[in-house]
Amino acid sequence: MKSRDHALALVSSRLGWLAIASAIVLAVGGTMAPDRIWSNLLIVGVYAVTLALGGALFIALTYVANASWNVAFRRVPEAMAVVLAPAGVGLLAVLAARCQQYAWHPQNGEADAGTFWFKELWTNPTFWMIRAVAYIAIWLLLSRMLVAASRRQDHSQGLGFTLFNRRLSAIFLLVYAPTFALASCDWLMLLDPMWFSTIFGVYNFAGMVEATLAIMIILSIILRRRGPLRGIFTDDHLHDLGKLLLGFSCFWMYIWFSQYMLIWYTNMPEETAYYLLRTGGPWGPLMIANVALNWIIPFFTLLPRPWKRNESIMLKIAVIVLLGRWLDLYIMVFPATVGTTPMVGIWEAAGGGLAVGLFGWLFFRAFTKVPAVPSGDPLLAESLHYHC
Amino acid sequence: MSERLLLAKFGHEDDLLASCKELRRHDYKIVDAFTPYAVHGLDRAMGLEPSRLTWVCFLCGMIGAIGMLIFEYWVGAISWPVDVGGKPWNSLPSNVPVAFETAVLLAGFGSVFALFGVSRLYPGKAVRPEFDRVTDDRFILVLAETDARFDPAEVKHLLRPFNLLELEERVVSAGGVPS
Question: Which of B41, B58, B96 comes nearest A303 by C-beta?
Fold first, then answer.
């Protein structure tokens, strides 16, 4: 027991140091290249918030589907959902600090004069900030309630908390769908205020779920190797997470292509501007790399059954998908805020380090606070003997 | 040519799984198992090899996707070029949806018909041998009495601890049981 805690504490403290080192680098960079630092912090914020929110979404989906297979490792997405509080506050701070980075901000002149009246209203900085606070507050409230009920179930018996969480999950999903679509438009699509895509919310949903599954695979494997989930998180669980990752990888590609093809086909200047900027010159190879990391590599490597049950292969695929998610956000943010040349250097590396370090450190802190297995859940036995 | 089969009948899936392992430990070859529903872990207990159907599915899907891309290129750029919105003849994005659909179609058809072919299922095929209650609450293990070494009495002795309900010998013509 002692050595287990020690092994986890070691991982946790290393991640903490990584976060601190990255934060120092970013703070130094804040004076040298503020635009790039801000863009990196926006990516880190969105990345961490969507991963944490993805944990809550995974819990809600499995409750609504009356699933039992995931119960044995449900504390993993629960601990991810707990990270939503610090991640959300961090993202709100980033948004509030450099709101004028968005081209529609009044400080940037009257560039948007003459657009649709509703868009002018929608991009009012105060209203925009209030909405951001509201999205995060609603997600936080619902996800904390889900996690709290699951934790209280440890000390009780019967179906009460399961039924409560199932109802709450249905509400969560109904609330999540419109708020997340709007949030991704507010935070990312409005970086190009004149550009619009009606599928943008779905596109971000696909990327979010894909990355969530990848991080769940990584964290569960670490927890299995380091002790708490040894003998609990089985190859069958890993296999099913792999199947879901394969499915959502294809879904991401489907939505990516749906967005691209319609804009390519209709060929209207106000829509194609987005892709002209992102497929031309040095961005072209990055666009292809994005598709390769998020779909081509995961698709072909996740097809064979033995590979989905292989810990070290799954670990590598999950890391590739998480890199792909970062590149996806990078391609959405950087052309609009930094400029036409892609720049990847120490600031971007520090941004990545901050995301990994902070999210990982907060996750392990949340995970080790409560028992590693939801012992009061009536479906736990079924999950422990799960065979797929 | 006919075959002598030994049918062991059980009332519970756990008995079936345990007796599968016990028989295989004594080098008996299990021809098939019939159950009312998919029993988890039965493939492993019977010692079945991994299915090769996935490869059929994958290859058919690839043939569908690549074949359709080539066909669309030939139609759109070589045989009958039509100007659509000033796009180039060989516009890949417009070819992708149909290539995707064809991949799904061929992968689906390919796997289903490969499954039918391998298990020799065709319209009007007679059901042989017939099993009572196997779609309801009986679990049946089929053993082939292949050589002189095969001893039904020993099998009966081996399976008794697993709540064996009934042991039945049958002679069927070849091809009666999908193998």
Answer: B58
pLDDT tens for each residue of B65-88: 999 999 999 998 899 998 888 888
Tell me which chain B residues have a C-beta less than 8 angstroms from the C-beta of A263: none
- Cβ of B93 within 8 Å of Cβ of A387? The answer is no
* Cβ contact A250:B61 at 8 Å: no
**Residue A372 included in any domain:** no
- pLDDT of amino acid A168: 95
Model pLDDT for residues A274-304, shown as the tens digit of each residue = 999 898 888 999 999 999 999 999 999 999 9
Quote the pLDDT of residue B174.
57
Residue B179 has a pLDDT of: 42
Range of the domain at A301: 12-105+116-366
Query: Is residue A36 situated within a structural domain?
Result: yes
The DSSP letter of residue B144 is: E
Domains identified in chain A, total number: 1
According to DSSP, the β-strands at B139-144 and B166-173 are: unpaired
Provide, as residue numbers in chain A, all residues whose Cβ is less than 8 Å from the Cβ of B94.
261, 265
One-letter amino acid at A125 equals P
pLDDT confidence of residue B175:
53
**Residue of B41, B50, B93 lying closest to A261 (CB–CB):** B93
Per CATH, the architecture of B2-50+128-173 is what? 2-Layer Sandwich (3.30)
Mutate to test the interface with A, among B40, B83, B95 (most CBs of A within 10 A): B40
Give pLDDT, residue A112: 55
> 3-state SS string over chain A?
CHHHHHHHHHHHHHHHHHHHHHHHHHHHHHHHCHHHHHHHHHHHHHHHHHHHHHHHHHHHHHHHCCCCCCHHHCHHHHHHHHCHHHHHHHHHHHHHHCHHHCCCCHHHCCCCCCCCHHHHHHCCHHHHHHHHHHHHHHHHHHHHHHHHHHHHHHHCCCCHHHHHHHHHHHHHHHHHHHHHHHHHHHHCHHHCCCCCCCCHHHHHHHHHHHHHHHHHHHHHHHHHHCCCCCCCCCHHHHHHHHHHHHHHHHHHHHHHHHHHHHHHHHCCHHHHHHHHHHHCCCHHHHHHHHHHHHHHHHHHHHCCHHHHCCHHHHHHHHHHHHHHHHHHHHHHHHHHHCCCCCCCCHHHHHHHHHHHHHHHHHHHHHHHHCCCCCCCCCCHHHHHCCCC
H or E segment and range at residue B142: strand B139-144
**Beta-carbon pairs below 8 A across chains A and B:** 19
A382 within domain boundaries: no
Q: Which of B41, B50, B93 has its CB closest to that of A387?
A: B41
- Domain membership of residue A224 (yes or no) is yes
pLDDT in tens, A53-68: 999 999 999 999 999 9
A260 touches B: beta carbon within 8 Å: yes
Say if the Cβ atoms of B94 and A260 lie within 8 Å: no
Which residues of chain A fall short of a pLDDT of 50? 1
Q: In the structure, how many helices (H) and strands (E) does chain B have?
A: 5, 4
Q: Where are the domains of chain B?
A: 2-50+128-173, 53-118
Residue among A265, A267, A387 minimizing CB distance to B40:
A387
